[in-house]
């Protein structure tokens, strides 16, 4: 029954998408000629949205009511899966995750329609048509190779074995299912990370749609950039959070003490982030200086294509990981779509190349726009390193059968120097004026921070560590943050002296007067913190392995720890086996940690789950390697200053979210100013 | 400079001192960093360069896989015995065929990997150079819309320039220079716009037709893709497979599904084929523990064909030796396998390895290898491997050296 409703919802969304393509293209062409559009775009956009929402609701309803007639549940859900993991089951496997994708896409399409409603211009009508095209593909996918509403026609007690796409087939439902992948129900972050990442991925469709619309309708100029800046920032901020929470999840669940492994799946999320970051900066150069028009089209098309590539890599089974699901035909289809997107977009771009060329207008490399060029060069090369490192081993093995390993050492060798160059560019660029920078002016703005940064570096080297990357990261981070803070103080101090009002009131005025700039600087502060956290955790972490019998005591990270006893307890969906470890500092009991293994169902090996004790110096991270009646083997790690990394990620995203509010805030400021006058 | 005069003296006077302090501190910092002697390579550091055969991109120092932990043990032992970094790496890579360095050395097959980023950096830097305004004014303007955008841009530039100068961000001399170049560009663009208006025939209808044609093309292609995707559903392999399909092609489903099917269908006539397929998968993943019971079931099943039972016995034998170090049991199991399939030299080859590596009996190992070589081994690489082992065993070398 639910299968019928779900399929009907998907069919409605598909029809809405198709309708939107035709109506949007028609309206765009008519409006471009200066005629009235005379076409209704609201109904198709609404149809797509309602269909997408309904399909998600049907899937959630099936899960909440344990309707195992759907094959998706028979392979991915279990009655015992607790809240909120049962809700998250809806996107814990391939078919369901595409439903979530469709829902986010339909929501963004609806937002694009609202923009169109306000302006009634060809650009937004064309963008709606492009959104419809993308929708056509994804809803088409759900009705064919990734159908979430297939019914189960052959089952064993706890698993659906065979499914049929036809909802009227004779249903044989299993009594229960195996539940989602244990790794995915081991931590609450797993319920949050995919939706965040999807909003980021799919959000990049909106700028892409406007860019294609501008190209197809021959409407060059900065208009499409102004209109999509907010969506780009929304997508970018969610992508930042998605990547951050992904790393956090890996740290809290995967039990190797790390958060980033340069795994192809992680790279797939980093790639669009890098390109979107470059785009956010280069679009400013076009808006302010009328340069880089063609480059902005290239970046936005690449960012969108990379989201599809990421989906292909993670979902097709080309790479085995927790993100790829059982074999399905979705791989070739996604690859085909990727080729179509790239070929179609760049063919269109080529036919419009005479329109998108912009004159060389750079007055000096020593200028804000010069620093943005450096930023784009660094980020693009960074993205290429990640792209080549991810794709090359696959391509080489496919064509020659030769295996090469490309991992952390390769990426670190190339990306670490690039990252430091990027940090210095951030520090210098943030206080370099547009057009032309006079040496003395820039020097006066960076002198103090430079001295402070060097002093901080020296202190680190003298009393802390002399490991080069750590010292350099302290230097670079203090420099970036110092430059930004000093600039704010200078502007506020100058205003305060001029007006005689309080310093902090003026500082507030400075920030509210140019929120776009200061939101960006907040993100820069976040990036500097991330760099600091990365350098500390990856260079100064310590680890040790201990074999312990109950009652044994060991020293680690300045604490005295005692293994008290093993424990075992049953939870609704799992059995937990672990060790009680007391952490003492002198005579004081600081914490009781429980590194453990979670056994889902009849899984004998269990998912090792670390116990983490956080403090301002960093984390102590205990994981259980093995446990039996006689004792345990325990691996103990430290992650120095890892909270700086998490904080930096949150601050970076916060800057992005703040920037999305800027246009509205500026408008309000202008209204208030007018009222004052 | 005059407008900056109010703040300039202090700034100018302090420049040498602050510059000197910056240089001194920078030199001190560089000296401290460069003179730092990192401690000798630890097993963790070297382990972070190596990937185990079953790991996905994670180095052995960070992988929780049992095989990675074994490889770390070898690494620690080598280092404890005084091996150099290179020797230790070679020992680990040699002991586990299929393991790799995570940073490929530059070679004909990997040169592109290293070259692409470097070439991009150089080409990109070269391209940014072309963005520099080469002379006063701009390149020829081609279209009216573009010319109008350009005019807006230049006027905005002039306004912002005035604001920047007022705020003291640009000194008057530089500002005057910039203003002159903007004004020249403005005049040039206005002239170009007049020319365009004079000749005005904008090819709007053609471009509209092209837009429609382009849209139609993309829609058409997308429909083709969706239809092709639909076609998949008719004869889709994989996921929607019943017991019969699983039995016919066990590789079409995941480990968990296969395990569930096996558990639910112990009386199925092809059960041993499925068990063996699953066990082989676990075996290849290095998960001996999971593979063991399935091999055991096949070896003790009366429905299994001799070939299936022999495969299971061979694997059990090898795992008994490689996993638990039990030489006698391993040899017994391998001998049982050989009885079932006398024409297959593989169990015999493993027997030779166990004699040689496990018991340290090079002569018995060499004898077994010699017998193996009397068979038709099919693959030349296999033959070379056995010959190499034979030569090493005859020379009385320790196994694996």
> Biggest interface pair, residues each?
A-B, 124 and 112 residues
Strand content of chain A: 5-15%
The gross shape of chain B turns out to be elongated
Low-confidence spans of chain B: pLDDT under 50, at least 5 residues? 1-11, 202-206, 232-241
The average pLDDT score of chain A comes to 89
Class per helix and strand makeup of chain B: mainly alpha
User: How many domains comprise the coordinates of chain A?
Assistant: 4
- N-to-C terminal Cα separation of chain A, in Å? 64 Å
Q: How would the global form of chain A be characterised?
A: flat
Summary, kept brief:
In chain A, 63% of the residues lie in helices and 13% in strands. Chain A is α+β, with helices and mostly antiparallel strands.
Topology:
The complex is a heterodimer of chains A (677) and B (401).
Chain A: H1 2-32, H2 42-64, H3 71-76, H4 85-88, H5 94-119, H6 122-143, E1 151-156, E2 159-164, H7 189-203, H8 205-216, H9 223-253, H10 264-289, H11 293-315, H12 330-351, H13 353-356, H14 368-400, H15 408-430, H16 439-463, H17 468-499, H18 503-513, H19 515-540, E3 543-548, E4 553-556, E5 559-571, E6 574-585, E7 588-593, E8 596-600, E9 607-609, E10 611-615, E11 618-627, E12 632-640, H20 642-660, H21 662-676
Antiparallel strand pairs in A: 1-2, 3-12, 4-5, 5-6, 6-7, 6-8, 8-9, 10-11, 11-12
Chain B: H1 8-34, H2 43-47, E1 50-51, H3 66-80, H4 85-95, E2 100-101, H5 111-129, H6 144-166, H7 172-198, H8 204-234, H9 243-248, H10 255-264, H11 271-284, H12 288-299, H13 306-324, H14 327-340, H15 346-358, H16 362-373, H17 380-394
Antiparallel strand pairs in B: 1-2
Helix pairs in contact in B: 3-4, 6-7, 10-11, 11-12, 11-13, 12-13, 13-14, 14-15, 15-16, 16-17
What does this molecule look like?
With 677 residues, chain A is of the alpha+beta class. Chain A contains 21 helices and twelve strands. Chain A has helices at 2-32, 42-64, 71-76, 85-88, 94-119, 122-143, 189-203, 205-216, 223-253, 264-289, 293-315, 330-351, 353-356, 368-400, 408-430, 439-463, 468-499, 503-513, 515-540, 642-660, 662-676, and strands at 151-156, 159-164, 543-548, 553-556, 559-571, 574-585, 588-593, 596-600, 607-609, 611-615, 618-627, 632-640. In chain A, strands 4, 5, 6, 7, 8 and 9 form a six-stranded antiparallel beta sheet that branches. The longest helix of chain A has 33 residues, at 368-400. The N and C termini of chain A lie far apart (64 Å). The radius of gyration of chain B is 37 Å and the shape is elongated. Chain B starts with 7 loop residues before the first helix and ends in a 7-residue tail after the last helix. Helices cover 68% and strands 1% of the residues of chain B. A two-stranded antiparallel ribbon of chain B has the order 1-2. Chain B folds into four domains: 2-34; 43-101, Cytochrome C biogenesis protein (Helicase, Ruva Protein, domain 3, Orthogonal Bundle); 133-198; 253-394, Tetratricopeptide repeat domain (Serine Threonine Protein Phosphatase 5, Tetratricopeptide repeat, Alpha Horseshoe). At the A-B interface, helix 1, helix 6, strand 2, helix 10 and helix 12 of A face helix 1, strand 2, helix 5, helix 6 and helix 7 of B.
């Amino acid at each position: 029954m639910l299968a019928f409703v779900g399929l009907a919802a998907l069919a409605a969304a598909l029809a809405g998408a198709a309708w939107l393509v035709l109506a949007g293209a028609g309206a765009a062409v008519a409006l471009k000629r200066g005629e009235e559009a005379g076409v209704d775009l609201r109904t198709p956009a609404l149809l797509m949205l309602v269909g997408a929402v309904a399909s998600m609701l049907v899937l959630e309803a099936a899960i909440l009511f344990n309707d195992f007639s759907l094959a998706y549940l028979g392979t991915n859900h279990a009655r015992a899966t607790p809240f909120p993991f049962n809700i998250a089951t809806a996107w814990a496997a391939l078919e369901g995750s595409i439903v979530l994708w469709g829902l986010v896409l339909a929501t963004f399409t609806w937002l694009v329609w609202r923009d169109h409603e306000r302006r009634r211009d060809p650009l937004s009508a064309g963008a709606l048509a492009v959104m419809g095209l993308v929708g056509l593909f994804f809803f088409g996918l759900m009705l064919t190779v990734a159908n979430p509403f297939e019914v189960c026609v052959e089952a064993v007690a706890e698993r659906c074995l065979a499914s049929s796409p036809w909802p009227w087939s004779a249903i044989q439902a299993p009594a229960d299912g195996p539940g989602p992948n244990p790794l995915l129900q081991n931590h609450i972050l797993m319920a949050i990370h995919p939706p965040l990442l999807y909003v980021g991925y799919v959000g990049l469709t909106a700028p892409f749609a406007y860019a294609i619309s501008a190209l197809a309708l021959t409407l060059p100029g900065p208009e499409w950039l102004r209109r999509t800046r907010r969506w780009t920032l929304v997508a970018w901020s969610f992508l930042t959070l998605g990547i951050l929470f992904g790393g956090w999840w890996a740290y809290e669940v995967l039990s190797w003490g790390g958060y980033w492994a340069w795994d192809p799946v992680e790279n797939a999320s980093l790639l669009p982030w890098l390109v979107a970051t470059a785009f956010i900066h280069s679009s400013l150069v076009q808006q302010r200086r009328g340069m880089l028009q063609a480059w902005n089209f290239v970046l936005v098309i690449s960012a969108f294509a990379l989201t599809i590539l990421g989906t292909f890599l993670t979902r097709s089974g080309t790479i085995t990981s927790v993100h790829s699901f059982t074999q399905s035909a979705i791989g070739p289809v996604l690859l085909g779509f990727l080729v179509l997107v790239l070929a179609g977009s760049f063919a269109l771009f080529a036919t419009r190349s005479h329109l998108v060329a912009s004159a060389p207008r750079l007055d000096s490399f020593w200028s804000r726009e010069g620093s943005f060029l450096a930023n784009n060069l660094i980020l693009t090369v960074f993205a290429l390193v990640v792209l080549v490192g991810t794709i090359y081993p696959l391509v080489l093995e496919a064509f020659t059968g030769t295996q090469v390993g490309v991992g952390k050492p390769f990426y670190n060798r190339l990306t670490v120097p690039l990252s430091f160059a990027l940090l210095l560019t951030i520090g210098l660029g943030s206080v370099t004026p547009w057009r032309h920078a006079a040496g003395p002016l820039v020097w006066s703005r960076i002198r103090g921070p430079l001295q402070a940064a060097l002093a901080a570096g020296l202190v680190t080297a003298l009393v802390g560590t002399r490991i080069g990357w750590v010292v350099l990261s302290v230097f670079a981070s203090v420099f970036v943050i110092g430059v930004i803070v000093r600039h704010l103080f200078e502007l506020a101090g100058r205003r305060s002296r001029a007006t005689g009002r309080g310093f902090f009131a003026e500082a507030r005025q400075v920030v509210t007067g140019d929120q776009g700039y200061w939101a960006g600087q907040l993100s820069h502060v976040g990036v500097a913190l991330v760099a600091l956290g990365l350098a500390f955790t990856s260079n100064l972490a310590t680890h040790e392995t201990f074999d312990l019998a109950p009652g044994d005591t060991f020293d680690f990270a300045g604490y005295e720890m005692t293994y008290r006893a093993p424990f075992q307890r049953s939870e609704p969906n799992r059995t937990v086996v672990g060790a009680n470890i007391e952490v003492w500092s002198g005579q004081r009991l600081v914490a009781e940690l429980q590194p453990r293994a979670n056994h889902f169902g009849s899984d004998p090996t269990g998912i090792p789950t670390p116990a983490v004790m956080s403090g301002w110096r960093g984390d102590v991270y205990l994981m259980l390697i093995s446990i039996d009646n006689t004792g345990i083997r325990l691996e103990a790690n430290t992650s120095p200053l890892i909270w700086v990394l998490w904080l930096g990620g949150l601050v970076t995203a916060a800057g992005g979210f703040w920037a999305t509010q800027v246009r509205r805030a500026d408008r309000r400021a202008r209204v208030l100013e007018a009222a004052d006058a | 400079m005059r407008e900056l005069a109010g703040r300039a003296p202090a700034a100018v006077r302090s420049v040498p001192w602050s510059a000197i302090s910056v240089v001194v501190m920078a030199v001190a910092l560089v000296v401290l960093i460069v003179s730092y002697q990192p401690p000798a390579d630890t097993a963790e550091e070297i382990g972070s360069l190596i990937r185990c055969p079953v790991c996905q991109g994670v180095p052995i120092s960070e992988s929780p896989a049992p095989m990675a932990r074994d490889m770390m043990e070898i690494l620690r032992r080598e280092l404890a015995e005084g091996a150099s970094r290179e020797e230790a790496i070679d020992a680990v890579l040699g002991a586990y065929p299929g393991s790799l360095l995570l940073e490929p050395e530059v070679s004909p097959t990997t040169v592109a990997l290293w070259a692409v980023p470097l070439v991009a950096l150089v080409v990109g830097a070269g391209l940014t150079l072309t963005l520099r305004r080469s002379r006063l004014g701009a390149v020829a303007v081609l279209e009216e819309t573009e010319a109008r955008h350009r005019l807006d841009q230049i006027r905005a530039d002039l306004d912002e320039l005035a604001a920047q100068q007022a705020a003291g961000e640009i000194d008057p001399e530089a500002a005057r220079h910039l203003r002159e170049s903007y004004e020249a560009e403005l005049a040039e663009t206005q002239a170009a716009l007049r020319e365009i208006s004079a000749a005005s025939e904008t090819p709007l209808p053609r471009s509209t037709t092209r837009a429609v044609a382009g849209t139609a093309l993309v829609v058409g292609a997308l429909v083709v893709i969706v239809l092709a995707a639909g076609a998949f559903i008719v004869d889709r392999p994989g996921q929607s497979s019943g017991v019969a399909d699983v039995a016919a092609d066990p590789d079409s489903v995941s480990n968990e599904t296969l395990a569930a099917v096996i558990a639910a269908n112990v009386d199925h006539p092809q059960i041993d084929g499925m068990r063996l397929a699953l066990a082989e998968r676990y075996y290849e993943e290095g998960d001996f523990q999971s593979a063991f019971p399935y091999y055991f079931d096949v070896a003790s099943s009366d429905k299994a064909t001799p070939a299936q039972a022999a495969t299971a016995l061979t694997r059990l034998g090898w795992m008994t030796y490689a996993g638990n170090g039990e030489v006698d049991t391993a040899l017994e199991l391998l001998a049982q396998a050989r009885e079932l399939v006398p024409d297959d030299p593989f169990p015999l080859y493993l027997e030779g390895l166990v004699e040689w590596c496990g018991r340290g009996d090079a002569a018995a190992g060499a004898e077994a290898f010699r017998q193996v070589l009397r068979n038709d081994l099919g693959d030349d690489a296999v033959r070379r491997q056995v010959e190499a082992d034979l030569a090493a065993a005859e020379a009385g070398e320790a196994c694996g050296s």
